[in-house]
Amino acid sequence: MTRAVLSLGANLGDRLAHLRAAVRSLGPGLVRVSGVYETPPWGDSAQPSYLNAVVLMDDPAATARDWLTRAQACERAEGRVRDPDRRFGPRTLDVDVIAVWDGDRPVLDDDPELTLPHPRAHLRAFVLAPWLAVDPDAELPGHGPIAALLDTPGPAADLAGVRSRPELSLESME
Ligand SMILES: Nc1ncnc2c1ncn2[C@@H]1O[C@H](COP(=O)(O)OP(=O)(O)OP(=O)(O)O)[C@@H](O)[C@H]1O
Ligand SMILES: Nc1nc2c(c(=O)[nH]1)N=C(CO)CN2
Protein backbone atom coordinates (compact mmCIF):
# COMPACT_ATOMS: atom_id res chain seq x y z
CA MET A 1 0.00 0.00 0.00
CA THR A 2 1.50 3.38 -0.92
CA ARG A 3 0.81 6.99 -0.12
CA ALA A 4 2.37 9.68 -2.23
CA VAL A 5 2.84 13.43 -2.33
CA LEU A 6 2.85 14.79 -5.87
CA SER A 7 3.62 18.35 -6.90
CA LEU A 8 1.88 19.98 -9.87
CA GLY A 9 3.23 22.96 -11.80
CA ALA A 10 2.26 24.78 -14.99
CA ASN A 11 3.52 27.96 -16.65
CA LEU A 12 2.44 27.69 -20.31
CA GLY A 13 -1.02 27.97 -21.88
CA ASP A 14 -4.09 27.79 -19.65
CA ARG A 15 -2.18 27.01 -16.47
CA LEU A 16 -5.23 26.38 -14.30
CA ALA A 17 -6.78 24.07 -16.91
CA HIS A 18 -3.58 21.99 -16.97
CA LEU A 19 -3.60 21.63 -13.18
CA ARG A 20 -7.30 20.75 -13.18
CA ALA A 21 -6.79 18.13 -15.87
CA ALA A 22 -4.04 16.55 -13.77
CA VAL A 23 -6.21 16.41 -10.66
CA ARG A 24 -9.07 14.92 -12.67
CA SER A 25 -6.94 12.24 -14.27
CA LEU A 26 -5.14 11.32 -11.04
CA GLY A 27 -8.70 10.63 -9.84
CA PRO A 28 -9.03 7.57 -7.61
CA GLY A 29 -6.73 7.70 -4.63
CA LEU A 30 -6.85 11.47 -4.31
CA VAL A 31 -6.92 12.30 -0.60
CA ARG A 32 -6.28 16.03 -0.45
CA VAL A 33 -5.64 18.88 -2.88
CA SER A 34 -3.82 22.04 -1.83
CA GLY A 35 -4.75 25.52 -2.85
CA VAL A 36 -3.20 27.05 -5.96
CA TYR A 37 -0.13 29.27 -5.60
CA GLU A 38 1.43 31.76 -8.00
CA THR A 39 5.18 31.27 -7.79
CA PRO A 40 8.23 32.87 -9.43
CA PRO A 41 10.18 30.51 -11.70
CA TRP A 42 12.81 28.54 -9.80
CA GLY A 43 16.09 27.47 -11.38
CA ASP A 44 15.64 29.30 -14.71
CA SER A 45 14.33 32.82 -14.27
CA ALA A 46 13.65 33.71 -17.93
CA GLN A 47 10.15 32.26 -18.11
CA PRO A 48 6.61 33.09 -16.95
CA SER A 49 5.53 32.55 -13.37
CA TYR A 50 4.01 29.20 -12.40
CA LEU A 51 0.83 28.00 -10.82
CA ASN A 52 1.74 25.28 -8.31
CA ALA A 53 -0.20 22.91 -6.09
CA VAL A 54 0.36 19.68 -4.19
CA VAL A 55 -1.84 16.59 -3.98
CA LEU A 56 -1.81 13.83 -1.37
CA MET A 57 -2.57 10.40 -2.83
CA ASP A 58 -3.31 7.00 -1.30
CA ASP A 59 -3.80 3.83 -3.31
CA PRO A 60 -3.46 0.35 -1.82
CA ALA A 61 -2.69 -1.08 -5.27
CA ALA A 62 -0.06 1.43 -6.39
CA THR A 63 3.69 0.79 -6.32
CA ALA A 64 6.10 3.72 -6.09
CA ARG A 65 6.78 3.29 -9.80
CA ASP A 66 3.06 3.55 -10.58
CA TRP A 67 3.04 7.12 -9.23
CA LEU A 68 5.74 8.11 -11.75
CA THR A 69 3.83 6.38 -14.56
CA ARG A 70 0.67 8.27 -13.62
CA ALA A 71 2.55 11.56 -13.27
CA GLN A 72 4.14 11.22 -16.70
CA ALA A 73 0.81 10.20 -18.29
CA CYS A 74 -0.71 13.46 -16.97
CA GLU A 75 2.20 15.47 -18.40
CA ARG A 76 1.84 13.82 -21.81
CA ALA A 77 -1.93 14.36 -21.85
CA GLU A 78 -1.33 18.10 -21.39
CA GLY A 79 1.10 18.21 -24.29
CA ARG A 80 4.29 18.63 -22.32
CA VAL A 81 7.31 19.00 -24.60
CA ARG A 82 10.79 18.51 -23.11
CA ASP A 83 13.52 20.93 -24.17
CA PRO A 84 16.83 19.10 -23.64
CA ASP A 85 18.68 22.45 -23.50
CA ARG A 86 16.55 23.89 -20.68
CA ARG A 87 16.55 21.66 -17.65
CA PHE A 88 14.21 23.84 -15.60
CA GLY A 89 12.48 25.49 -18.56
CA PRO A 90 8.80 26.30 -19.16
CA ARG A 91 6.14 23.60 -19.46
CA THR A 92 2.40 23.08 -19.79
CA LEU A 93 2.45 20.63 -16.89
CA ASP A 94 5.03 19.17 -14.54
CA VAL A 95 4.03 16.43 -12.12
CA ASP A 96 6.80 15.38 -9.75
CA VAL A 97 6.75 12.51 -7.25
CA ILE A 98 7.91 14.22 -4.07
CA ALA A 99 7.77 11.33 -1.61
CA VAL A 100 6.19 7.88 -1.25
CA TRP A 101 5.43 5.76 1.84
CA ASP A 102 4.78 2.04 1.89
CA GLY A 103 2.59 1.77 4.96
CA ASP A 104 4.50 3.88 7.50
CA ARG A 105 7.87 3.33 5.85
CA PRO A 106 9.26 5.98 3.49
CA VAL A 107 10.43 4.64 0.14
CA LEU A 108 14.05 5.71 -0.45
CA ASP A 109 15.65 5.21 -3.86
CA ASP A 110 18.57 6.75 -5.74
CA ASP A 111 17.46 5.37 -9.11
CA PRO A 112 17.75 8.29 -11.59
CA GLU A 113 14.46 7.18 -13.19
CA LEU A 114 12.67 7.64 -9.88
CA THR A 115 14.66 9.22 -7.08
CA LEU A 116 12.82 9.24 -3.75
CA PRO A 117 12.34 11.55 -2.12
CA HIS A 118 12.57 14.00 -5.03
CA PRO A 119 16.16 15.30 -4.85
CA ARG A 120 15.26 18.99 -5.06
CA ALA A 121 12.00 19.07 -3.08
CA HIS A 122 13.70 20.31 0.11
CA LEU A 123 14.96 23.38 -1.78
CA ARG A 124 11.64 24.41 -3.30
CA ALA A 125 9.25 26.77 -1.55
CA PHE A 126 6.80 26.12 -4.41
CA VAL A 127 6.53 22.50 -3.18
CA LEU A 128 6.93 23.01 0.58
CA ALA A 129 4.43 25.88 1.03
CA PRO A 130 1.41 24.16 -0.60
CA TRP A 131 2.30 20.89 1.14
CA LEU A 132 2.55 22.59 4.54
CA ALA A 133 -0.88 24.15 4.04
CA VAL A 134 -2.57 20.74 3.65
CA ASP A 135 -0.38 18.76 6.08
CA PRO A 136 1.32 20.98 8.68
CA ASP A 137 3.00 18.03 10.44
CA ALA A 138 4.44 16.49 7.28
CA GLU A 139 8.06 15.41 7.07
CA LEU A 140 10.14 15.00 3.95
CA PRO A 141 11.95 11.67 4.41
CA GLY A 142 15.65 12.24 5.14
CA HIS A 143 15.17 16.00 5.58
CA GLY A 144 12.76 16.42 8.49
CA PRO A 145 9.68 18.58 9.06
CA ILE A 146 8.67 20.64 6.04
CA ALA A 147 7.89 23.60 8.32
CA ALA A 148 11.60 23.65 9.31
CA LEU A 149 12.71 23.28 5.68
CA LEU A 150 10.75 26.42 4.82
CA ASP A 151 12.94 28.22 7.36
CA THR A 152 16.18 27.27 5.61
CA PRO A 153 17.85 30.05 3.56
CA GLY A 154 16.80 29.15 -0.03
CA PRO A 155 13.13 28.33 0.56
CA ALA A 156 12.77 31.11 3.17
CA ALA A 157 13.98 33.69 0.65
CA ASP A 158 11.72 32.30 -2.09
CA LEU A 159 8.69 32.12 0.17
CA ALA A 160 8.23 35.88 -0.08
CA GLY A 161 7.33 35.43 -3.75
CA VAL A 162 4.88 32.56 -3.23
CA ARG A 163 1.34 33.95 -3.38
CA SER A 164 -1.86 32.08 -2.61
CA ARG A 165 -4.54 32.30 -5.34
CA PRO A 166 -7.70 31.24 -3.43
CA GLU A 167 -9.93 32.17 -6.37
CA LEU A 168 -8.31 29.38 -8.44
CA SER A 169 -9.50 26.35 -6.50
CA LEU A 170 -8.78 22.84 -7.78
CA GLU A 171 -11.25 21.24 -5.39
CA SER A 172 -14.70 21.89 -6.77
CA MET A 173 -14.23 21.54 -10.48
CA GLU A 174 -17.71 20.32 -11.49
N1 LIG B 1 10.88 11.85 -7.93
C1 LIG B 1 10.79 12.03 -9.25
N2 LIG B 1 9.68 12.60 -9.80
C2 LIG B 1 9.59 12.79 -11.13
N3 LIG B 1 10.56 12.46 -12.03
C3 LIG B 1 11.67 11.90 -11.54
C4 LIG B 1 11.83 11.66 -10.14
N4 LIG B 1 13.06 11.08 -9.94
C5 LIG B 1 13.61 10.97 -11.13
N5 LIG B 1 12.80 11.45 -12.11
C6 LIG B 1 13.17 11.44 -13.52
O1 LIG B 1 13.50 12.76 -13.88
C7 LIG B 1 13.40 12.83 -15.29
C8 LIG B 1 13.20 14.27 -15.71
O2 LIG B 1 11.92 14.66 -15.24
P1 LIG B 1 11.38 16.08 -15.59
O3 LIG B 1 11.62 16.39 -17.03
O4 LIG B 1 9.96 16.15 -15.10
O5 LIG B 1 12.34 16.98 -14.71
P2 LIG B 1 12.10 18.48 -14.43
O6 LIG B 1 10.67 18.63 -14.02
O7 LIG B 1 12.54 19.28 -15.59
O8 LIG B 1 13.05 18.77 -13.22
P3 LIG B 1 12.74 18.46 -11.71
O9 LIG B 1 12.70 16.96 -11.59
O10 LIG B 1 13.86 19.10 -11.00
O11 LIG B 1 11.40 19.09 -11.40
C9 LIG B 1 12.27 11.90 -15.67
O12 LIG B 1 12.59 11.19 -16.82
C10 LIG B 1 12.08 11.00 -14.47
O13 LIG B 1 12.28 9.63 -14.80
N1 LIG C 1 8.01 28.19 -9.49
C1 LIG C 1 8.32 27.07 -10.11
N2 LIG C 1 9.52 26.94 -10.71
C2 LIG C 1 9.84 25.79 -11.34
C3 LIG C 1 8.93 24.72 -11.40
C4 LIG C 1 7.67 24.88 -10.76
O1 LIG C 1 6.80 23.96 -10.77
N3 LIG C 1 7.42 26.05 -10.12
N4 LIG C 1 9.25 23.56 -12.02
C5 LIG C 1 10.41 23.43 -12.57
C6 LIG C 1 10.69 22.11 -13.17
O2 LIG C 1 11.84 21.61 -12.87
C7 LIG C 1 11.42 24.50 -12.62
N5 LIG C 1 11.05 25.68 -11.92
Account of the 3D structure:
- This protein is α+β, with helices and mostly antiparallel strands and 174 residues long.
- The chain has a single domain (2-164), classed as Alpha-Beta Plaits, CATH 3.30.70.560.
- The protein is 27% helix and 28% strand.
- It has five helices and eleven strands; from the N terminus they run E-H-E-E-E-H-E-E-E-E-H-E-E-H-H-E.
- It has helices spanning 15-26, 64-77, 125-134, 146-149, 153-159; strands at residues 2-10, 30-33, 37-39, 50-59, 94-102, 105-106, 109-111, 114-116, 139-140, 144-145, 163-164.
- The strands form three sheets. Strands 1, 2, 3, 4, 5, 6 and 11 form a seven-stranded antiparallel beta sheet that branches.
- A hairpin with a 2-residue loop joins strand 5 (94-102) and strand 6.
- Helix 1 packs antiparallel against helix 2 (64-77) and helix 3 (125-134) packs across helix 5 (153-159).
- The protein is globular and about 40 Å long.
- The two termini are 29 Å apart.
- The structure holds adenosine-5'-triphosphate and 2-amino-6-hydroxymethyl-7,8-dihydro-3H-pteridin-4-one.
- Residues 68, 82, 87-88, 94, 96-97, 112-116, 118, 120 line the site of adenosine-5'-triphosphate.
- Keywords: ATP-binding, Folate biosynthesis, Kinase, Nucleotide-binding, Transferase.
- Pathway: Cofactor biosynthesis; tetrahydrofolate biosynthesis; 2-amino-4-hydroxy-6-hydroxymethyl-7,8-dihydropteridine diphosphate from 7,8-dihydroneopterin triphosphate: step 4/4.
- It catalyses: 6-hydroxymethyl-7,8-dihydropterin + ATP = (7,8-dihydropterin-6-yl)methyl diphosphate + AMP + H(+).
- This is 2-amino-4-hydroxy-6-hydroxymethyldihydropteridine diphosphokinase.
- Residues 87-98 form the 7,8-dihydro-6-hydroxymethylpterin-pyrophosphokinase domain.
